[in-house]
Amino acid sequence: SQLRQIIEDNSAKVFAGSSDFWVLVAALK
Fold first, then answer.
1. How far apart are CA 22 and CA 16, in angstroms?
2. Per residue in 4-29, pLDDT tens?
3. Cα(12)–Cα(14) distance, rounded to whole angstroms?
4. b vs e for 7-16, b when ≥16 Cβ sit within 10 Å of the residue's Cβ?
5. Measuring CA to CA, how many Å separate 8 from each of 1, 5, 27, 29?
6. Residues 15, 21 contacting (CB under 8 angstroms)
7. Going along 1-29, which residue ranges are E strands?
8. Residue 16: what pLDDT?
9. Quick one: pLDDT at residue 13?
10. What's the rounded Cα separation, in Å, for the pair 13 and 21?
11. Residue 10, Cα to own-chain centre: how many angstroms?
12. CA distances (Å), 29 to each of 2, 10, 15, 19, 21, in order?
C-alpha cells in the first residue's frame, strides 16, 4: 500500500543515518 511504502522509505532513511546499519552491511558482504 502507499502507507507501507512511505513507512519503508522513512525507515530506510533512518537506517542510512545509523552507524549500526553500515556495520550490518559490512558484515553481510
1. 8
2. 998 888 777 776 677 777 788 889 88
3. 5
4. eeeeeeeeee
5. 11, 5, 22, 22
6. yes
7. none
8. 64
9. 75
10. 11
11. 8
12. 31, 24, 17, 16, 13
The rounded distance, in Å, linking the Cα atoms of 17 and 22 is 9
Q: Kindly state the cell numbers that stand for 5.
A: 511504502
Q: What's the pLDDT at 21?
A: 74
**What is the grid cell recorded at 18?**
545509523
Q: Residue 21's CB: how many other CB atoms inside 10 A?
A: 13
DSSP classification of residue 1:
-
Structural domain spans, the chain: 1-29
